């Protein structure tokens, strides 16, 4: 059995190790096709439904609640809302802002 290796600058093979994730994703739960392809995530801040948005599908400008910067059209990002909340409460996030939401507060533009 061979594992995937990548050659480094000096020709010494390096094994690619999978990265660990701090979140749990339930992929076996049935999905409503009308809602898209969201995933259920569990974190310290509760249960979330998260849907990735490709750059092609991003056609409007949104404001990320994690950093308070705009997400311009064409930039891949994700949409998240509370699993027990309504779809109207969804917010568009930069992926790094979403992944680090436990280390910083949500900002609001006033």
Largest sheet: 5 strands, antiparallel
Helix content: under 10%
Q: Give the end-to-end Cα distance, rounded to a whole number of Å.
A: 57 Å
Q: How many alpha or pi helices?
A: 1
Q: Which overall shape is indicated by the principal axes computed on the Cα atoms?
A: globular
Find the count of extended strands (DSSP E, 2+ residues): 9
Number of domains: 1
CATH class term: Alpha Beta
Would you identify the regions where 5 or more consecutive residues have pLDDT less than 50? 20-25, 31-35
Biggest sheet strand order reads: 3-4-5-8-9
Task: Give the structural class.
Answer: mainly beta
User: What CATH architecture do you see?
Assistant: 2-Layer Sandwich
Percentage of residues in DSSP E strands: 25-35%
- Looking at the structure, the CATH topology is first zn-finger domain of poly(adp-ribose) polymerase-1
């Amino acid at each position: 059995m061979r594992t995937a290796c990548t050659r480094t600058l000096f020709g010494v093979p390096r094994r690619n190790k999978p990265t660990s994730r701090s979140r749990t994703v339930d992929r076996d739960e049935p999905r409503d096709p009308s809602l898209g392809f969201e995933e259920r995530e569990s974190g310290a801040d509760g249960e979330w439904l998260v849907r990735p948005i490709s750059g092609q599908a991003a056609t409007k400008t949104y404001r990320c609640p994690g950093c308070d910067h705009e997400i311009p059209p064409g930039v891949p990002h994700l949409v998240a809302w509370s699993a027990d909340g309504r779809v109207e409460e969804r917010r568009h996030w930069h992926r790094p802002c979403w992944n680090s939401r436990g280390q910083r507060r949500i900002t609001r533009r006033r």
